[in-house]
Amino acid sequence: GQQVMQIPQYQHVQEGEDFTTYCNSSTTLSNIQWYKQRPGGHPVFLIQLVKSGEVKKQKRLTFQFGEAKKNSSLHITATQTTDVGTYFCAERSNTGKLIFGQGTTLQVKP
Amino acid sequence: NAGVMQNPRHLVRRRGQEARLRCSPMKGHSHVYWYRQLPEEGLKFMVYLQKENIIDESGMPKERFSAEFPKEGPSILRIQQVVRGDSAAYFCASSPQIGRTSGANVLTFGAGSRLTVL
Hints:
The complex is a heterodimer. Chain A is mainly beta. In chain A, 0% of the residues lie in helices and 55% in strands. In chain A, the strands form two sheets. In chain A, strands 2, 4, 5, 9, 10 and 11 form a six-stranded mixed sheet that branches. In chain A, strands 1-3-8-7-6 form a five-stranded antiparallel sheet, with no helix packed on it. The termini of chain A are far apart. By secondary structure, chain B is mostly beta strands. Chain B is 0% helix and 47% strand. Chain B has no helices and eleven strands. Chain B is globular. The chains are: A mainly beta, B mainly beta.
């Protein structure tokens, strides 16, 4: 069945360092979404990518969708302690449900 | 414009009891999704519903779990005869519709219901 693989599972960085999480799918994706979940919180929508090769930026966050629409990445420049949390990618299935990757948990040391 | 409302936020049950979790979607949203999250794990899809219809229940355990989204009132996830392994956070999310338009399938999550089975 449909599945998105997300790596790494965990990442510890020093504040100010960069961070990247990757999502890969065995099938072509119609779109991909990214969500962030703070510790003890609930997932919050960040962005949706639809077009092949699309790049979107939100301040220090850069989201990319692969040319073949089978992979995506989220890059954070100069991490801050407020970036702590788990970042999930998600793909839409044929029935409309969202299937989430396993998530990458980011820890930032001040 | 209230977001997705879930209650109770915390629920404690003894083994064998029933747990009923409620979810009111955002105003204007007609699609509801339930996800389960175990500690330190990801979001596992359970069920996707529209008003009075189950669209996809491929993630629901075959026994003890059921979900509904009646014409009136909130969506309810029901767990009968709970076991310790049911202890988890259960998140509800809603969306306005599905389709090709941007934002149509973006999920808004509630704060979750955390079930503890003793």
